[in-house]
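Table 4 source record.
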Amino acid sequence: MLSDKKFSAGFDKLYVMASALFAVFTSVPLIWACRYAVPSADDFYGANNMRNLMMEGRTLLSAAWEETIYVYQNTQGTFTGNFVYYFCSALIQAGLFRTRVALFIMTALFLVALYFSIHSIICYILRGGGYKIVVNLLYGCIVFVITIGHNVHEIFYWICGACMYTVPLIFMLAGLAFAVRGAANKRKADILSAMILCGLATGGTLPVAAFCNVILLGIGFWEYVHRRNFKILPVFLCSMAGALINSAAPGNFARQDRIGAELDIILALKNSGGAVLSGFRDLIRNSPLLLIVAICVFIGIRCLRIKIYEILYIVVYSIIGLLLIDFPVVFAYGNIYLEPRVLFVQNMAIVAATMSCSVCIGQTLAWCLPRVQNLQEIYVFVGAAVCLLTVVLMTGGGYGINDIMPLAIYKNIANGNMREFDEENRKIFQLLDEASGQDVVIEYSPSAMGILQPMKLQQSADYWTNVGTAKWYGCNSIILRQ
């Protein structure tokens, strides 16, 4: 394997700094957009429930635990997500400033955990040292891909979605990073941290639980085959235990009975495959996924030596693993429709599977092509391929600035759209703060702006979001006229 020093030979420090700036460039707008988010829908219900329990004498922790147990028994098994959600709901109290601070922290932690996991996997599994440029480029491209479209609203800019999905994903990414580091350096503290974090991660939604277990099983196989290392096993067992506790919740079965969907495993697998294929097709056409392919092919050519049966295993396992990500949702609900928050997890899984398969393609090419001794030739070839693929995507795949969330956010900040969105929402919140005991009529609500959504109020005072918001502010009723 190449050392970090050899791998970086031929590159000036300027290129390392440029790749780091690229990683920062993709992250900053996603975090900055949190300052324009608003509480909505379930955020008010969670705040209401916690306020009522604490007024009855419960402490913050006991109230959050009581709500978590109730949901576990009656609605769903997401014990980690629900506890974090109710705990945060009591602290945030559906306030504008507190909501934005909480989302800022969660989004920043997600991006840090994502970078940490990429760095750990590249450096420890491939045994290649720092790989600074590759890690930075991979991170930036992955952020571009997984934030394509408007799926990130429910992940980064909605408290309920952030608690149910983003926080478990943070635990998963950090847990995977510690697991890989622990397997490599055999530090018990890293393995213990991974066990705790992955156990908590699988207490999120079932797609996150499935994603975590699929990746851990794949990494565990890799470690066993290459190093006869069983360090991942206790991490996987903790992760699987959390998933079993989650999936065995009485609330899951009660909710499924209320929905009345037919449980059909074959149909669910078929629907899962259809959802993944559709998602992969969209990412190929509308995101820089092929740039990730190019980078990972390069890694496979230069930095990896695996056998043909291992390549077959990785490719087959990646495909099967993708089917399992959406399976819990389509199995329980009996249809192929996936909420944007589930599509975000699906996109992450597609990226992970694509990276694995692309590394295998690179390894296959390394067998077929003569060995290139001059690293500069490799760098020029990869750079040219990346530029060509970028041009093809932008001109032929429907890939534009409005599809790239970090760039779209920069654009909306520059033209003042986000500031106007924020001003309109502040007027609504000021009106509600002063409307206790009144029937409130909101004349106008700002339109959704890409990843940012306004309060989800409707023209009917009986609509569930209107009812929950009215209860929190002490209003008799709330209606949206337009």
